[in-house]
């Protein structure tokens, strides 16, 4: 990922993360007109990062699917003043060689090859020369061997280095590996949001939500999104970005959009007259 220059005034300033988010993330998570909502977890991770980089620390971020882990990581990476190696390990990458291919490629920015030992050495040589924040998403998929080898990596003395492990139920996965679990310097839980809190944040996130009746937003969350930022992003992207819908949501438009996403029309209950529904379908 692109990093901020050394000494950049926005380095680790999470309130400026929106200005530096990569387009690839914006296009997938922020609907037209939407903005990043800065959470307490983003602030905690960004505020601690300069200290953790000096210590070679390991930080664990855990939370359910769709609760916003990737958004937290992308926001912090956007204001990093070190090389940020962002790797998402697919579930199919079960072998040590497959996992180290992804990790070393992310660290160096070039496709890794060779034996596990060769890829480990390549990563170590790079980290000796280049200050780096290594973010491993979906870390619950790491094999025991890969977790132990990553612990070896953050045990080494590098100029500036920290590793963030993130994943669903990650704390439980780490508890199965006491020698790794005991070396985690900080744990940041990301919990599923209640509908009322989700609605509160949504109204900060997008003008369409800000203009929509809170009762309807709560019904949509309970019937469809269930506190998931990912699900809400999909709905808002469908309406605002794909279909150019800018009016406040009404019950018919919301139900039609959710039907096109899930194949099921939710039982939303209108309270008063409805607007003309948006046209088009959501992918």
Report what the structure shows.
By secondary structure, the chain is an alpha/beta fold. 48% of the residues lie in helices and 10% in strands. It contains 13 helices and five strands. The chain has helices at 23-29, 40-55, 69-78, 96-108, 116-129, 144-155, 170-175, 178-181, 195-205, 207-210, 214-225, 229-242, 251-262, and strands at 58-62, 83-88, 132-137, 161-167, 186-189. It has a five-stranded parallel beta sheet, with helices on both faces. Helix 6 (144-155) links the parallel strand 3 (132-137) and strand 4. The protein is elongated.
SSE blueprint and pairings:
Layout: H1 23-29, H2 40-55, E1 58-62, H3 69-78, E2 83-88, H4 96-108, H5 116-129, E3 132-137, H6 144-155, E4 161-167, H7 170-175, H8 178-181, E5 186-189, H9 195-205, H10 207-210, H11 214-225, H12 229-242, H13 251-262
Parallel strand pairs: 1-4, 1-5, 2-3, 3-4
Short description:
The chain has 283 residues and is of the alpha/beta class. The protein has helices at 23-29, 40-55, 69-78, 96-108, 116-129, 144-155, 170-175, 178-181, 195-205, 207-210, 214-225, 229-242, 251-262; strands at residues 58-62, 83-88, 132-137, 161-167, 186-189.
């Amino acid at each position: 990922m692109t990093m901020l220059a050394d000494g950049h005034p926005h380095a680790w300033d999470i309130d400026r993360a929106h200005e530096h988010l990569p387009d690839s993330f914006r296009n997938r998570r922020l609907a037209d007109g939407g903005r990043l909502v800065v959470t307490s977890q983003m602030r905690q991770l960004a505020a601690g990062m300069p200290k953790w980089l000096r210590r070679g620390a390991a930080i664990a971020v855990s939370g359910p699917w769709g609760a916003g882990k990737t958004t937290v990581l992308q926001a912090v990476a956007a204001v990093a003043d070190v090389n940020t190696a962002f790797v998402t390990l697919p579930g199919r990458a079960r072998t040590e060689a497959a996992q180290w291919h992804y990790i070393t490629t992310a660290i160096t920015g070039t496709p890794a090859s060779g034996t596990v030992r060769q890829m480990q050495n390549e990563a170590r040589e790079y980290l000796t020369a280049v200050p780096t924040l290594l973010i491993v998403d979906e870390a619950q998929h790491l094999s025991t061997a890969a977790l132990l080898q990553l612990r070896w990596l953050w045990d080494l003395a590098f100029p500036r280095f920290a590793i963030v492990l993130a994943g669903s139920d990650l704390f439980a996965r780490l508890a199965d590996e006491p020698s790794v679990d005991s070396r985690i310097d900080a744990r940041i839980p990301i919990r599923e949001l209640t509908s009322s809190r989700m609605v509160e944040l949504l109204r900060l996130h997008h003008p369409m939500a800000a203009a929509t009746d809170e009762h309807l937003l709560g019904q949509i969350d309970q019937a469809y999104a269930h506190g998931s930022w990912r699900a809400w992003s999909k709905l808002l992207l469908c309406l605002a970005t794909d279909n150019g819908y800018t009016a406040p949501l009404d019950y018919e438009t919301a139900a039609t959009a959710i039907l096109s996403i899930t194949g099921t029309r939710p039982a939303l209950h209108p309270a008063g007259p409805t607007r003309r529904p948006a046209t088009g379908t959501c992918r």
